[in-house]
Amino acid sequence: MTTTTQNDLIEVPRGLKGVVVTETELGDVRGDEGFFHYRQYSAVELAERRGLEDVWFLGLFGWLPDDAERAAFGADVAAARHLPPEVAEALPVIAAGGGSPLDGLRTVLSLLGSARGLRPVYDLDDDTRRRDAIGLAAAVPTVLAGLHRLRAGLVPLEPRDDLGHAAAYLTMLTGAEPTPEQARAVEQYLVLTVDHGFNASTFTARVIASTGADVAACLVGAIGALSGPLHGGAPSRALDTLDDIGTVERIDPWVRQRVLSGDRIMGFGHAVYRTEDPRSRLLRGVAERLSEGDPAASELVELAEQVERRVVQILAELKPGRELHTNVEFYAGVVMSLCGLPRELFTPTFAVARVIGWSANVLEQARDPKIIRPSARYVGPPPPQPVPAR
Q1: Which InterPro entries does the UniProt record give (predicted)?
Q2: Is residue 37 annotated as a catalytic residue, yes or no?
Q3: d(CA 88, CA 82)
Q4: At 144, which CATH number?
């Protein structure tokens, strides 16, 4: 056994920025180009032309399904949306405990893993791992909708097997079947956010998977990472920005004050993209489509587009050479609001999509027998020092 000494350690950037930690076949983000893909397909093109279940299947199996595969997979997902009785009976207690929707989801997924008898991925074959992953990811909309309704004094609804994943989620939340346009809008948002490189939550899921733990443990850890304010939560804050501005006439003074004071403008900027976020571009079109014929919705979308335009222009004027573009959260908040989703569910809805990508990453990592175990450089007081007497 080889021992690593302090002299053998490799210096890397803080936060592992730019450090390649493994290889993946699941996709990549090319920030300088404003492009990202799932396996060999453009993620934006998939969002334009395919449904969520197709992209889910692609992540788990490696190819897009044919008609028979799509029907069989859709049936598997629909069946897995139903919660075991012991988990459903626990929802009122968890909802009454307070906390955020992500807190509740984290608790329920842990309980669901136990109720379904999930075993460590280390001990399972690929098919069983995949079945476990589908079972957990499919249940997330049911859990979130149930907790939301309970906290609002309403009765949770059973998922409808005849609806796609996005439409079933909206129906369980509101009690009414969404319009096809609303269901498709939310589905496109979910497709765009299934996966996005080795962000903090995805990496967390893979670290846990590398230990051989069960799928539920991996997803619970990922949700813990997503709950941090530096990772999740921006869609609602971006919509708060539009509320704060209020009218087109207030855009310029509001933006100039923020830029000159160095404050962050929520919904703008990204850790990877150095150009326009391709997800934002597609969601802008989705928002425009949703707002057609609705004066209030059209006013919101027009305000968002004016804010986007003026932030870019004012920044170029006041901070030449510093580009800032909208990220996925900016128009995601607008789209979800137009589809009737409350703001406290914006980030949990992101988790409905991302749990699918986390699952694919867990399965990929589970095939690698090497545990992820980095080192740290000790910088404390020099040891050994005598332990003082009492």
Answers
A1: Citrate_synth-like_lrg_a-sub, Citrate_synth-like_sm_a-sub, Citrate_synthase, Citrate_synthase_AS, Citrate_synthase_bac-typ, Citrate_synthase_sf
A2: no
A3: 9
A4: 1.10.580.10
Nearest to 166 by CA among 88, 85, 56, 296: 56
Please tell me whether residues 171 and 270 are part of one structural domain. Answer: no
Question: What sign does the CA torsion over 110, 81, 194, 187 have?
Answer: negative
User: Whose structure tokens read 């996925």?
Assistant: 328
Cα dihedral sign, 166-96-134-79: negative
- Split into its structural domains, the chain has a count of 2
How confident is the model over 260-274, as a mean pLDDT? 73
| pLDDT tens digits for range 87-100 | 999 999 999 988 88
Is-contact 338 332, C-beta < 8 A? Answer: no
Give the separation between CA 34 and CA 272, rounded to whole angstroms. Answer: 9
- CA–CA distance from 87 to each of 84, 108, 146, 188 (Å)? 5, 7, 11, 30
Whether the ω angle into residue 180 lies within 30 degrees of 0, i.e. cis, is: no
Catalytic residue among 270, 308, 325, 364: 270
pLDDT in tens, 307-360: 888 888 888 888 777 777 777 778 888 999 999 999 889 989 999 999 999 999
Same domain, 175 and 79: yes
Does residue 238 share a domain with residue 224?
no
Task: Please provide the DSSP assignment of 300-361 as one string.
Answer: HHHHHHHHHHHHHHHHHHHSTT----B-HHHHHHHHHHHTT--GGGHHHHHHHHHHHHHHHH
Q: Which of 53, 187, 308, 329 is catalytic?
A: 329
Best CA proximity match to 353, nearest among 32, 38, 31, 10 = 38
**Which residues, in sequence order, are CB contacts of 296 under 8 Å at separation 6+?**
none
Per the annotation, the verdict on 323 as an active-site residue is: no
> Helices 346-366 and 215-226 sit at what angle, rounded to 10 degrees?
140
**Verdict on whether the full-model pTM lies above 0.85:** yes
Q: Give the range of the structural domain holding residue 64, as residue numbers without chain letter.
A: 39-229+344-366
Residue 8 domain-assigned?
no
Cα-only R_g, the chain: 22
pLDDT, one tens digit per residue, over 188-217 is 999 999 999 899 999 999 999 999 999 999
